[in-house]
């Protein structure tokens, strides 16, 4: 069973915006794309740097350090220099509140 962490009001993020929160000691970036929410670990699997401050290109986040790309929806790596996917976290909306599940 997962513990759900309250993030913000569902209306707090506009499409293309994100917020970074801590979930069980991990930085997690929560994105809103086309009216849906997605959460990925805020770390580039290439060098361990944060990625949420990078440019959002469609449904891909571009690492600001070396240009690796990750799908925000799935965590899948899309181009080198990274070769490993980033972790994803379940997201839900309950009573107008955005929540992210902690990984157990």
TrEMBL record:
Gene3D superfamilies: Rieske [2Fe-2S] iron-sulphur domain. The keyword Nucleus does not apply. PROSITE patterns: RIESKE. It holds the Pfam family Rieske. It comes from the Bacteria. Residues 5-100 form the Rieske domain. Coiled coil: none annotated. Keywords: 2Fe-2S, Iron, Iron-sulfur, Metal-binding. This is Non-heme iron oxygenase ferredoxin subunit. It comes from Methylomonas subterranea.
């Amino acid at each position: 069973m997962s513990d759900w962490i309250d993030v913000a009001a569902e209306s707090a993020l506009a499409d293309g915006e994100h917020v970074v929160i801590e979930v069980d000691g991990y930085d997690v970036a929560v994105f809103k794309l086309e009216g849906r929410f997605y959460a990925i670990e805020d770390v580039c699997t290439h060098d361990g740097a944060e990625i949420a401050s990078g440019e959002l290109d469609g449904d891909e986040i571009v690492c600001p350090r070396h240009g690796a790309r990750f799908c925000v929806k799935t965590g899948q790596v899309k181009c080198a220099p990274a070769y490993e996917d980033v972790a994803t976290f379940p997201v839900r909306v309950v009573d107008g509140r955005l929540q992210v599940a902690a990984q157990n």
